[in-house]
Amino acid sequence: MPNRHRYAFLLTLLALSGSLQSAAPGDSPPQTAAAAPALAANYPSFKVDVQLTAAAQERLNKSGNKIGVSFEFGTELGPDSPNMISKLVELEQPGVIDTESFGFAADDVAKLGEEYDAQAGGFSISETDLNFLDCGSVFGSITALRGQTIVMSCDVLKLD
Known about the structure:
Blueprint: H1 3-17, H2 35-42, E1 47-52, H3 54-63, E2 66-74, E3 85-91, E4 95-98, H4 106-112, E5 117-125, E6 133-135, E7 137-141, H5 142-145, E8 149-156
Parallel strand pairs: 1-8
Antiparallel strand pairs: 1-4, 2-3, 2-5, 5-7, 6-8
C-alpha cells in the first residue's frame, strides 16, 4: 500500500474514532503542551482578500446579501471526506479573511498532518435569492499557500 494511502487510512481511522468539529472565531480551544507545537506547525495560515467588481458591489448593496466564503482543509476534500475540517465565513462587505482566526481545535489540525490541501470558494448568501456572485477560487497545498495573501475576485454571475 503506498505511503499516501496508508496515511489516508490512518487519518480515516482517527477521524472515525472522534468527531471533527470547528470552534467559532475567537474561541480558544484547550491545548496540551504537546498539541501546541503541532497546532502552530500545521495550522492553515494564509489570508484571502475578497474583492468585488463595481457591478458586483452594486448588486450586493442593492440586495442586502452577504458574501460567503467556504474553506476546506484536508488530504481529501469533498462532502464525504473523513479527515477534513471546514469553515464558512460571512462578510457584509469585501475584505480580508485570515484563516488564523478560525480557532480550529489542535486535535483537528493535527489530524491533517504536515501536508494537506486547502480550497476556498466565494458566493452570495441570501435567504431568498440565488447566488449571483462568480468568484475565483483558491486551491493549493498548504505549504504553497502558508503565509500568502491570495486575491479572490468576484463579479456578477453571467448566465449564457
